[in-house]
């Protein structure tokens, strides 16, 4: 007889950045077996500093996912998320959780061991896996013929991306996902991509050869949560259909089965473009373009306005994911 966990639908969520935890925080309350696969190509902020000075696999995105799936009291999670102030010397800008993840990685021999240890200590609902045990470097070639290395450099180049390249930092090895990631994808009932940057949060995972192969082989329904806003220097002017096409092109097949698209107008006067300087304009809907990508589109109100920004409403997105799974109301 299967255990209650084994009988639950298996949902694998792949991505990084700030959008992923918004969905996971709500999805953990549903009767599903969650696996979060998190990018390890970040090289900005605290993660970038730890990556350089300690040779660490970037911990920032992993930290936020652990917190989103944790069942610890908020007070304990707030301590884990505490960020040292600008006057704190070499600690300035580092969240305590990033330092803890880096320390446990060093003590136990790698990022996967650190995540497994913290998953137990933080009472995680589901499973969290780094996309790779190696620190990955993302490089981009632009339409003007230039090329840069590093996720943060790509974001701030403010140029049209022609193609991406993924490599293991300081190595000729081919990037590889570990077996836990592959098994989760192959056994999934639903694979969720995003929300998050197409080029710097989602694709750094899908470009890992064996992870890509697993997605192509999986029988799971693949759902893409389209960004609400375009991103400067990355997706300026791209429609929802063009976002889907980029993902399908890198996967080498029309893999996206369903795309969730926000249809609620974003009030321009509400958005603080200085505070959220990476965003550009609302993503435009292209129904005919999505038909050409051979995917279903769910148009709905997924918008949550808060803190002078436009975000996904995790509760509403989760309801649609559950509906797609056929678990709504169960």
UniProtKB/TrEMBL annotation:
Location(s), subcellular: Cytoplasm
Pfam families referenced in this protein's UniProt entry, alphabetically: CofD (PF01933)
UniProt cross-references to SUPFAM superfamilies, sorted A to Z: CofD-like
Cytoplasm keyword on record: yes
Key words, A-Z: Cytoplasm
Gene3D superfamilies assigned to the protein according to its UniProt record, in alphabetical order: CofD-like domains
Record function comment: Required for morphogenesis under gluconeogenic growth conditions.
Record-linked HAMAP family: Gluconeogen_factor (MF_00973)
Family membership noted in the UniProt record: Belongs to the gluconeogenesis factor family.
Name of the molecule in the record: Putative gluconeogenesis factor
Gene (UniProt): yvcK
């Amino acid at each position: 007889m299967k255990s209650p966990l084994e009988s639950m639908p298996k949902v694998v969520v792949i991505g990084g950045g700030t959008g992923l935890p918004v969905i996971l925080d709500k999805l953990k309350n549903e009767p599903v077996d969650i696996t979060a696969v998190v990018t390890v190509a970040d090289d900005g902020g605290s993660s970038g500093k730890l990556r350089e000075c300690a040779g660490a696999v970037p911990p920032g995105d992993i930290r936020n996912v652990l917190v989103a799936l944790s069942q610890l009291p908020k007070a304990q999670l707030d301590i884990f998320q505490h960020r040292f102030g600008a006057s704190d010397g070499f600690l300035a800008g580092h969240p305590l959780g990033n330092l803890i993840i880096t320390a446990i990685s060093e003590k136990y021999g790698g990022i996967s061991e650190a995540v497994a240890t913290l998953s137990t200590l933080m009472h995680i609902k589901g499973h969290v896996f780094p996309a790779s045990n190696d620190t990955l470097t993302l490089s981009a070639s632009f339409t003007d013929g230039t090329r840069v290395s590093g996720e943060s450099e790509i974001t701030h180049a403010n140029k049209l991306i022609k193609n991406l390249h993924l490599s293991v930092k300081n190595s000729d090895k081919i990037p590889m996902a570990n077996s836990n990631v592959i098994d989760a994808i192959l056994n999934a009932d639903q694979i969720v991509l995003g929300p998050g940057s197409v080029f710097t949060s989602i694709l750094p995972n899908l470009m890992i050869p064996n992870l890509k192969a697993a997605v192509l082989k999986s029988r799971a329904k693949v759902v893409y949560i389209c960004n609400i806003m375009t991103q400067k220097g990355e997706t300026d002017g791209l429609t929802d259909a063009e976002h889907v096409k980029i993902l399908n092109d890198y996967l080498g097949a029309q893999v996206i089965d369903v795309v969730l698209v926000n249809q609620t107008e974003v009030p321009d006067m509400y958005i603080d473009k200085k505070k959220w300087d990476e965003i550009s304009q609302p993503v435009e809907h292209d129904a005919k373009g999505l038909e050409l990508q051979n995917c279903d589109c769910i148009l709905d109100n997924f918008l949550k306005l808060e803190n002078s920004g436009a975000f996904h409403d995790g509760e509403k997105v989760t309801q649609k994911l559950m509906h797609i799974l056929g678990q709504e109301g169960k």
